[in-house]
Design goal:
The protein is α+β, with helices and mostly antiparallel strands. It contains 13 helices and ten strands. The protein has three domains: about 80 residues, no CATH class; about 110 residues, Butyryl-CoA Dehydrogenase, subunit A, domain 2 (Beta Barrel); about 150 residues, Up-down Bundle (Butyryl-CoA Dehydrogenase, subunit A, domain 3). The chain is globular, with a radius of gyration of 22 Å.
Length: about 400
């Protein structure tokens, strides 16, 4: 099963490749390929600016808001070629999550204020959804926003806020009113992450990263105009945003790039007197994963092309999330197997981003592999736990 491109699509692919070749430099590519969250935002912000100047920062957005007007296949080609070339991955929170909510539900003033800085990479965004007692069950959130004249006073705590320490802005789910159903009375609001009363604390992860954070909100004053849509009606916005996140969480472009990375490692690593790639047991494992990646790729393209006209989009997104997150874990597991004893070394972030040394015991493909494996143990939980996704599929797709 292969994706056969038309002559026009092949020409587009060549255009993208030429752009990437002349725009990226070796140091950025090396840091990007470590497989870990960056210790700063410099590479991402730089790459965001480069893509903005090219007009390619948000290909999936409508043209009137800065999108490219590309087809679904062109978007797929672009993202795959960026991943394959080692381009920094742009922050999802602004471009993939909040941006579509803003241009769908936001006021004209909100669109004018926030969409341009997202496109240009001038403002990074924190996602304030999960709480200590409300992770997969977002309707149980306790963070409150009480109206006080022209402001809301916000109090509460958010958890697992990815790279919140780097962000200028945040979009938060808060409870603005009591309601008979927990899904009602929830609002989505924009909060300046530098506002008085906000404390961001990094959480040390098992892989040595500090890529997730706790956010504490203590009497934070937020202007009334920072509410997205009507107060108390954010549940549909949240479902819309999470459907986008779960579709993206299939991460088919990373899966494709991971296959290539496994091949690189397996060609270099040896088992006995031959490359690991020639080992029949390992080759069967790799071939099995390749088929799964290709099947998922077709599913992602089918959903992108047809949804929501023929399928319940939330159910489709959950199917892709279930399949994609499990596949990411299996790919990193095989990558660690290919690395063998070298995988026992977990690079700290500063080590992974340092220029490679001359020690042949630690080739350039070593940093980040084991850290990636450890981090992705959470990918079947973040964005909605596996059990929650299966319940959504059962309800929306099968009526259970």
């Amino acid at each position: 099963m292969e994706l056969n491109l038309t002559p026009d699509e092949l020409a587009f692919r060549d255009q993208v490749r030429a752009f990437l070749q002349r725009s990226l430099n070796a140091d950025v590519v090396r840091r990007s390929r470590t497989g870990m969250h960056p210790p700063n935002e410099e590479d991402r912000r730089w790459w965001n600016r480069v893509l903005f100047e090219q007009g390619w920062a948000a290909p999936h957005w409508p043209v009137e808001y800065g999108g490219t007007g590309w087809s679904h296949v062109q978007n797929h080609i672009f993202e795959y070629e960026c991943k394959l070339a080692g381009a920094p991955e742009l922050r999802w929170q602004g471009l993939r999550l909040l941006g579509p909510v803003l241009y769908t539900y936001g006021s004209p003033e909100q669109k004018a204020r926030y969409l341009p800085p997202i496109l240009k990479g001038e403002e990074m965004w924190a996602q304030g959804f999960s709480e200590p007692g409300a992770g997969s069950d977002l309707a149980a959130l306790k963070t409150s926003a009480v109206r006080d004249g022209d402001h809301y006073i916000v109090n509460g705590q958010k958890l697992w806020t990815t790279e919140g320490q780097y962000c200028e802005q945040g979009f938060f789910l808060v409870r603005t009113e009591a309601a008979d159903r927990p899904q009602r009375g929830i609002s989505m609001m924009i909060i300046d992450m530098r506002a008085p009363g906000i404390t961001v604390r990094q959480i040390d992860m098992i892989n040595g990263e500090g890529s997730t954070c706790e956010v504490f909100l203590d009497n934070v004053r937020v202007p009334v105009e920072n509410i997205l849509g009507e107060p108390g009606n954010a549940w549909n916005q949240a479902k819309f945003l999470l459907a986008n996140e779960r579709t993206s969480s299939a991460d088919i472009h990373k899966a494709r790039a991971d296959l290539e990375r496994i091949r690189v490692i397996a060609r270099a690593e040896r088992r006995g007197d031959r490359p690991l790639l020639e080992d029949p047991v390992f080759s069967r494992k790799l071939a099995t994963l390749r088929l799964e990646v290709e099947a998922l790729e077709w599913s992602v393209l089918k959903v992108a092309h047809e949804a929501p006209s023929r399928h319940p989009i939330a159910a489709c997104a959950s199917v892709l999330k279930v399949r994609g997150s499990g596949l990411q874990q299996r790919l990193t597991e095989l990558m660690v197997q290919a690395l063998g004893q070298r995988s026992l070394r977990v690079y700290r972030r500063d080590e992974a981003y340092a220029p490679p040394g001359d020690d042949p015991s630690w080739p350039a493909y070593t940093p980040g592999v084991t850290a990636d494996l450890m981090y992705l143990r959470a990918c079947t939980i973040f964005g909605g736990a596996m059990e929650v996704q299966k319940n959504i599929i059962a309800k929306l797709a099968f009526g259970f």
